[in-house]
TrEMBL record:
Name listed for the protein in its UniProt record: CONSTANS-like 2 protein
Record keywords, A-Z: Metal-binding, Nucleus, Zinc, Zinc-finger
InterPro entries in UniProt: CCT_domain (IPR010402), CONSTANS-like (IPR045281), CONSTANS-like_Bbox1 (IPR049808), Znf_B-box (IPR000315)
Cellular localization per UniProt: Nucleus
Family: Belongs to the CONSTANS family.
DNA sequence: TCATGATGTACGGCCACAGAAATTA
DNA sequence: GTTAATTTCTGTGGCCGTACATCAT
């Protein structure tokens, strides 16, 4: 069922689904097994009754189009997006392409409330109870990765060591590791490939490879290859990475959490739009737990309901006030650049007359010619 | 409704060079 | 370990070309 909805900012004027069950509330997820769009309440009612229903393959709905199943969550946009919207949104400009997106694991089991009770002996980290929680996690990762944005995006409480250390691992250590992986990944492909943000490196485990290892497959764009074809290829690869791998029983790296049937794809979309396969690990790795020693994905997510809401709220506030204006770091360079001779906008060599003028200027205004740096 | 052309908008690259940062003696 | 000299790297603004979006026909 479809109905027209106008977004509050006029941006999302798309068709959205209402719940196929109650036909009143807006749907929040899609059940592949039932082929039905459901709201949270109906999902709880339908899938929470028996174990068979609990195993239904359900996915979140894209926040942008509100129609397609969400595949990734973007921290910067605080949104869960389907593959198409992800590509569409994050290919508009370099800034957007640098957003860190994390694949959304399929919903399995009953959706816990945000104040889900931690069970004895089980990792609370398995409780990706809402997509907002995943977004919050991704957001925090993004904060650490991009130091420039830290000031405006920082959600962690300064001085609160509890926020900085989880399960014995500090964010800094974890993310240094993450950054290293990205760098390695980028370097290994050479400048030509790494400069192309549209290229993808997907985690694929070709069935004909006969190996369980995670092998990054690089898709190179030929000069004559149409962009549309490439985009289509990206969609296929992303889709195969996010969904087909599970459905077809292929061996894309997933982590099976012991306390639930939740399976989290062991890849991450880098700021450059490249799903991070955590290359560098032994190609003979056979178990998913060995593939990803990075502890932060396995670390507990002990966000209380208040903490999470507060973090998300603060994040959204920061996002509103985010500014992309160019920040001048050296006023002296700006001053020189403004006075520098140009030819069609390009800096030109100083003419003899210009040099003489500079000398005269320095004599007359001795001591005032240099603009102090900020 | 779709195709085509005109127009508007956004963005990256280019350039020289002062000064910061790193390296060497 | 300290200092000076040298080398390397970074950042700066305006114009242009290209890609993309929008609108009219």
């Amino acid at each position: 069922m479809l109905k027209v909805s106008s977004g509050e900012d006029g941006y999302l004027n798309n068709w959205i689904h209402t719940c196929d069950s109650c036909q009143a509330a807006a749907c929040t997820l899609y059940c592949h097994t039932d082929s039905a769009y459901l709201c949270h309440g109906c999902d709880k009612h339908i899938h929470g009754d028996n174990t068979t229903a609990l195993s239904h393959h359900r996915v979140w709905i894209c926040d942008a189009c509100e129609a397609a199943p969400a595949a990734v969550t973007c921290s910067a946009d605080a949104a869960s997006l389907c593959i198409e919207c992800d590509i569409q949104v994050h290919s508009v400009n370099p800034l957007a392409s640098r957003h860190t997106r994390v694949p959304i694991p399929p919903i399995s089991g009953q959706i816990c409330s945000s104040s889900s009770v931690q069970q004895d002996g089980q990792l609370p980290g398995t409780m990706f109870d809402t997509k907002n929680e995943i977004a919050a996690l991704t957001m925090e990762l993004n904060l650490e990765i991009n130091e420039d944005e830290m000031d405006s995006w920082l959600l962690l409480e300064p001085g609160n060591t509890d926020n900085q250390t989880m399960s014995g691992f500090t964010y800094g250590e974890q993310l240094d590791e993450y950054v290293d992986v990205v760098d390695t990944c980028t370097e290994s492909f050479g400048p030509e490939q790494s400069s192309d943000q549209q290229q993808l490196v997907c985690v694929n485990c070709p069935e004909d490879s006969g190996s369980d290892s995670v092998v990054p497959v690089q898709t190179l764009r030929t000069k004559n290859q149409p962009l549309q074809e490439e985009t289509q290829l990206q969609k296929q690869q992303l889709h195969s990475t996010y969904f087909n791998s599970e459905q077809s029983g292929s061996k894309t790296a997933f982590t099976n959490y012991p306390s639930s049937s939740l399976r989290v794809p062991m890849l991450m979309i880098t700021p450059a739009g490249i799903p991070n396969s955590y290359t560098g690990f032994p190609a003979t790795t056979t178990t998913t737990t060995e593939i990803l020693p990075n502890p932060w994905l396995l670390m507990p997510l002990q966000f209380t309901s208040m903490n999470r809401e507060e973090k998300v709220l603060r994040y959204r506030e920061k996002r509103k006030s985010r500014k992309f204006e160019k920040k001048i770091r050296y006023a002296s360079r700006k001053a020189y650049a403004e006075t520098r001779p140009r030819i069609k906008g390009k800096f030109a060599r100083k003419t003899d007359k210009g040099i003489e003028d500079d000398q005269m200027f320095s004599k007359e205004d001795n001591g005032y010619g240099v603009v102090p740096s900020l």
